[in-house]
Amino acid sequence: MGSPQNYVTVTRRQPDIEDYIDMLRRYRSWVIGPTFAGLVIAVVVAFCWPDTYESRAVMRIIPQAVPANLVEGVGMASMSQRLDQMTAQILGRTALMNIIQEPALDLYKKERAHLTLDEVAETMRTKAIKVNLYDAPGGSTNRGAQAFVIRFRYTDRFKAQQVVREITGKFEEVNFALQQTQASTTAHFLTDELKKAKDRVDSAQEQLGQFAAQHAGELPQDSAGNMALVNSKEQEIHSIEDAIGRSQDQKLSVEIQLQNLKLAEADAAANVEQTQTTPNATLRNERVVQLDKIIADANQGLRNLQQKYKDDYPDVVAAKKTVKTLEDQRADLEKIDMASPSPAGPQVRTFVNPVAIQRLQDLRASEKTGTGAIANLQADIDRRTRRMAQVQNELQNLQAKVAASPAALQRYNELQAELNLAKEAYDAESKIRDKSETAVSLEQHRAGETLDLLETADLPEAPVEPNRWAIVGLGTFIGLLAGFAMAGAKELKNTSLKNLKDVRAYTNLPVLSSVPLLENALLIRRKRRLAWLAWSSALVIGGILMSGAAYYWSTGRSGPS
User: Fold this and answer.
1) 276: which of 109, 211, 324, 435 is 20 to 30 A away, CA to CA?
2) Do the domain assignments include residue 93?
3) DSSP H helical segments within 309-353, as ranges?
4) Are 232 and 399 in contact (CB under 8 A)?
């Protein structure tokens, strides 16, 4: 066996410009072939790709005919909100399926052959139809868009235009129906809310009325009157108490006088008949003396009565009459004594004392008067006592109302506040409801916001896609990149020494001379024929394919879609 060989890994030499030129010369077929293939494929794809046309229309929002400061419409606050709402309704799957199946349009025949109608409609909605807000060129963007653009892409430009017309017509119909529905719905809703607000007001009024009826006299407007009545009742009670006190004092005084009269009446009754044995002169003198004592006692009683009562008081008047009668009797007695002769001896007499009889009668009359006065005073006391009990009961009721007034006042204020809030809510709802009814009338007269075609659906002349020359250029560029990649891979795989620079770099030996590569002439001619045949075939096939694609494109544009 031979000795084992040692393999040494050698780093490749860094190529220069001449090396790259040599590479291109060696692998020019590897670069030109993929580039030509990319060109052919790109041309075939570009011209077999069907044309897609885009038709567009611009619709604008026309403000309501009546000034907004006079009549407020029901238009949505934002154009984008209105547009989203109408788009969701118009471009729904059901609406699009109806458009696709219209006999005059009959869209997406090929797609409907292998896809469901629902899938075709979803593809149409997401890819073919675009609805966007529109800003006029040079217009201010901060004022908000007042128009929108409707675009539809399809392979048939006439159908694309017809579909855009169909969609714009639906936008006009839906906008009017949406405005009417919104106005009517708003009016009905606000009518219901107004009814609820009215029911709330009625309920609050009923609760307040019931509370006022249950707490009569305890309400805020009654507090001042209650306090005045309390003060008045207290003053009346004090007045009645003072009057009762005075009457009781008078009754006590009369009762004392009545007792004195009874005692004096007993004395007078005992002195009505008198038996006395005395000389005649002595007897007469004793009668005068006795009558003087009675007159003195009567005067003393009169003075006592005058100290307590006025001169027109019945007892005072009666006492004065008694004193006058006694004085008259004394004067008559003195006259009799002076006119009659004196008897010779002592005499024993039983006589009726007229003064005592008169006094007894006067005392009985005074007793009767006193008894009547006591009865009158007692009746007055009883009447005033009943009145005081009645006033005290009324005072207690008033004080109970005053004591309950803070809680009642708080609840009354709560009910009053609830009533005020209910009335404010009712007034607000009433104003809003009136506006909504005006808005309904505005829409019925078609004087609200409407949609108008600013630009009708145009008939596209040139397709928007595909960009064929961009596809051709991109395909050719990709083929060129693929050729360079294949040439580079071929170069990396080839590890042979290709020129004198490689010999000097990898052997570190001087090169004295070089011998050119000698090949068989027959073999060279065979290779050239094969290369020429391959390139001719490729050029012919590529030309046929590109010509066919161009012809297909031209016939497709001139014929129906």
Assistant:
1) 324
2) no
3) 314-339
4) no
